[in-house]
Protein: Wall-associated receptor kinase galacturonan-binding domain-containing protein
Organism: Rotaria socialis
Amino acid sequence: MLVLLFILLIAADIGFALECRTDCRAGPYDFGRTFNIPDGACPQRRSGDACSIDIELDYHSASYNVKFSTLMLSRDSVYIGAGPYLSYSIGYQCSKSIDCVISYARNRVTEMIHRNYSARIIYDEIAPIIKNPLRNGSIQCYNMRKEAIVCASDSTCHLDYDQRENKFRSRGCNLGREPSVFAYDGGSYLSIKIGCNRDLCNNEETFSQIKNVLSTYGLTDGNGRRIAKGNKQMKKSFSLK
């Protein structure tokens, strides 16, 4: 009898699947509005082992969006660019219940809004490191062999630094004139990408300076890792870290 009960419990667990909200975007909402789904919105459902959301907070416009899916999201990212623009994106998944992601979103949106990041202040700190407002014409950049190469007038210098391996993943020329910073933490994949338009700016010093700015303003910790810890997957329990 106990053996039969054990088999039934295993079968029930294997067959368990959530009916997750999916293919739906809620927002944009301004920072003064608590996250909630309007009645009748996001009716689409899809079976999955875990329900997922993507929260995108745009500090330059004081607004946010929440997207629902069944994708196994596992990452946080920060984008900073001219404008100024400052976006913080959080991927989260849980398997406790259908709406466990909604509970998370309400709490996380509130917590992130209270951080009150200033897109203008942070970009003004970063701009002197990555931007040459007087640039006119081509630019010199480093390649992966740390050789100086010439990049076209419609390009920037680019670097992608792997923070787990402590080495460049790529660097050279990149199409696009506007400098920017993109930090990504997917747990096993951790990088900072920088586009800059100063001669030979895609180097270790630029990476170190940008990393320090991100840490100083609380966008990452001292090791370049996420602050929000948005990809924490919960199994059978729900808690905020």
